[in-house]
Each structure stands twice: as C-alpha cells, then as structure tokens.
Amino acid sequence: MSGSQTSVKNNAVKTAIRSARTRLKGLENGNGESFDDLAALMADVRRIGRASRGGLSAKQAILRHLREFAGRPVTGGALEVVSGIAEYGRRVRDLRDEGHPIVSGLTRLDPAQSRALRRLGITRPLRRDEYLMLPGRQRRTATPATAA
Fold it and tell me: What pTM, to 2 d.p., does this model score?
C-alpha cells in the first residue's frame, strides 16, 4: 500500500472512530437512546472495520483474521468488525465451501475435527457465535460446473 493510500485509510478510520465516539457520548448522556442510534453506532463500527482492512475484501479479511488466530476461537462479533459487514457468516460459509478447515458451534464435527479440537486443548463445545480455523491445509474442492 502506498503512503497516500495509507493516509487515506488512516483518515477513514479516524473519521469513523470520531463518529462512533460522538454517538457513544450521546447515548451516555441520554441524548439518544433509540434503536436507530444503536444501529448507527454499529454501522460506525463496521465502517471502522472496512476502513481497516486495507484493500482486502470482507472474505479475505475474515480469512486473514482466522489464520492469525488459528486454533483459537474467534467470536462472530470480531469477524463482523474485521470484515466490516453484518453478513460475515455467509463469507465464513463461502470459505468453508472453498475447503478451509473452519468450524463453529453450529458445525457437526466429524471424528477428525473432534480430535483436532482436543489436541488444541479445546474441551468445551464452541458457542454458536464462535469460529475456529483448524490447523491443516485447505482441502481441494471441485470447481463448480459452468452453465453452457
């Protein structure tokens, strides 16, 4: 990323953070307690995530984050912020479909996945909103047939 791109990214992040702080202060002071104000704050947080991902797509940002924390549970909230989108779960499914070894609390584990979790020292079930990239390589998946 060039210096000017970094500067633009940093300015976008700073602007989104200022907006979020202003909204939080309003909520703290009782100046805005509606669901719309909370939704706007969540949009600010997603904007911070989008500005922080440095040119990566939401899916690429999620994959980078899961790889960085491979073998450790990551919350859906963290993936929402990292990706800057509310539909992070769909991107996780896309990554699974591409063969990435990602499990969640909603995944039906096969015996090999259960053993991998135990080897990582994870003995409790993952929560519904937790995701974990298992160690290992991406599986090769068949490329979808194209319509003629």
Answer: 0.71
